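INPUT
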Amino acid sequence: MSAALLSLNGVHTHIGAYHILHGVDLQVARGQLTMLLGRNGAGKTTTLRTIMGLWHASKGRIMFDGQDITAWDTPNIAGLNVAYVPENMGIFSDLTVKENMLLAARKASRTNDMDDARLKWIFTLFPPVEKFWNHPAGKLSGGQKQMLAVARAIVEPRTLLIVDEPSKGLAPAIINNMIDAFAQLKATGTTILLVEQNINFAKRLGDNVAVMDNGQVVHAGAMQELAEDEALQKSLLGLAI
Amino acid sequence: MKFDFDWKPLALVPVLALGVLPFIGSPSTWLTLTVAGLAMGMIIFIIASGLTLVFGLMDVLNFGHGVFIALGAFVATTVLGLMGDWTGSPDLWRNLVAIFPAMLVAMAVSGALGLAFERFIVRPVYGQHLKQILITMGGMIIGEELIKVIWGPAQIALPLPEGLRGAVLMGDAAIEKYRLLAVVVGLIVFALLAWVLSRTKIGLLIRAGVQDREMVESLGYRIKRLFVGVFVVGSALAGLGGVMWGLYQQNVTPQMGAQVNVLIFIVIIIGGLGSTGGALIGALLVGLMANYTGFLVPKVALFSNIALMVLILLWRPQGVYPVANR
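OUTPUT
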């Protein structure tokens, strides 16, 4: 495993009176795709939100590229070229597809300022983004919204891409499209942290895996190792990949 | 994929206007009342546009918005008082030259107060609606008292400049000149707001922030800074609205903000909290309704707008143009 771009050490998170994360230890290797697996309620989404500063860790340390970002607020963390796609996709429904993309391109004040070559590449990854460029994002289908959410996250080169359940509720054809897109992104050297419930998705894309249960990482290692060990899968996830 | 503009709320304005025509009878009276209603609506829109964005962006219920209205109006009495030669002139252009700086100074003073209001009154109670209501109402009371300290407790006359008095005749209908000016100023403010919100990145950020402020922060933007800017602009627009309202009523009182506050909240609820387009429709409906009922059934004029709000909420419980994701 190459050096970690992001590491969480003993991270605890409280939301109101609830203690959700109980000392999460997680390493996200630079230039690789790390899958975060676990049952519902294991703390995966809370981990991502804590990394993004949307909820702050009550204890522990989060390091990103050598900097302690534990107490940083969300805009500062995003300013490190970290992009986040939440579980609900965070699409601005009243804005057009173009406007959604423009907002994510922080260096651009107008559409013309956006990187043309990168946009063309994104259009090849997600054709509906180009097709519905001037249409209200709220009118897109669930799959198209998910494509827009990921396209928006990568409209500028990112050091780390964090995505929460990109395959949730999508048709198989669109899931395959997503897998291709993440594979291409991975090939560009972008570090990716993905939360997933779809095991096939995880198996086809993941370099590394961390499995969470009860607010802790209970297993970390190579994805292939977990995929090949049926007994381990059953004990960690309650099913075989 | 078919994208239809939701024209039904927009159609309410002509439907209401044309619907009352048979009851009023005289077309000239109807035209006079309609222009008066549109003028009143435009002034209310100027005041309400900032408030609806403030609520939409940060979920802040600012019941103290009225203080900026009153302050703007009182500042105008001072500025216009100093420009007596210009307001007393029968030349329209000289009157407009006097009104323009009065508006600018009123906006600057109200905006500056808005900056302090946000910092010391609103910011400590982010996310706490009950405290927001109490403390912003308290802020408005303090503001009213400070206005009394500076300008005195009595009503002050704010007469229209000479060239804006009287009416122009359109057929048999007499249309007051000032009401035409109010419509024009309202349209200019609406056009500017629409341009900023749809054509600039700041505008996109405001619209996006109204829908999902957490996502805007995740994209790397500081929503609280944006909110301060919107609050200051909203306060300045309330100050401008105060000047317009004071000239419309031709007098100002320290309590005028609190009185207009009720109408503004009706407007932003009808429009859909956070929606500027909805606020425009709501303001025009409220302005027209107030004028029509004032003429047809004066006894119900006071609560006609509340009845209008109830009817609209029965039709669309989140207002005529609800903001997505809220």
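end of record. DSSP finds 13 helices and four strands in chain B.
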